[in-house]
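Blinded run. Sample ID left blank on purpose so nobody reads anything into the name before looking at the predicted structure. Input follows.
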Amino acid sequence: MKQIYGNYTKEDFDVWQILFKRQMGNLPTAASAAYLEGLEHVNFVEEAIPKFDETNELLKAQTGWRLAVVPGIVPDYTFFELMSNKRFPATTWLRKMKELDYLEEPDMFHDVFAHVPLLANQSFVDFLEALSNIGLQYVGNDYAIEILSRVYWFTVEFGLIQEAQGLRIYGAGILSSAGETKFSLSDEPPKHPFDVQTIANTSYRKDVFQDRYFVIESYEQLYDSIPEVKRILAEMVEEHESQVVVA
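Blinded prediction complete.
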């Protein structure tokens, strides 16, 4: 699949502009420094929907990653296989004007505006690639994929990072939501130190703001956690399978 730029409508450009302008009013004091640096690196602007070919050239020069066009949510194997090969799955369609504040399935604004800038950070993409390699080993094991999805959810999608300037956002699920951007940094939801074991045992919902967030100290911490992710996942899968046999 390819991005067909000529197919974008005036509404598409208006939606991108509205969402971009709204979030850029929030993110300079809310987003991780690495995200803001990456946003500048990939040259995203309010006036134009990004062209994947141009973005890919910039990412490739920085970390070797690029975007892979997908129609929407893809099967586990496809998802992990793409990212294990440094290709981030991204849609090319944009939500409608009536869906500005809530969308059930991630669109291009989420996939590209929120995710892509951090693909310019080497430690972050190393974590993504390593996590995907683990995922490929467990494709077909629903329990294992659910545990792994919790790690992905509370980091890549809804992670916070403690920086010198204060608590900041790096999770794409927050970065693409004006409402959750403000909520996640408020005093209302609990924030917990990043801990793989706790995350692996924490379920989540997709249809509400998160009721807790996990905070990393650096992107290197994410990548350094991969051996622990492997160990805890293997232990939990073994325990689950033994319980299934007994039952």
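Unblinding after everyone has recorded impressions. The chain is about 50% helix and 10% strand.
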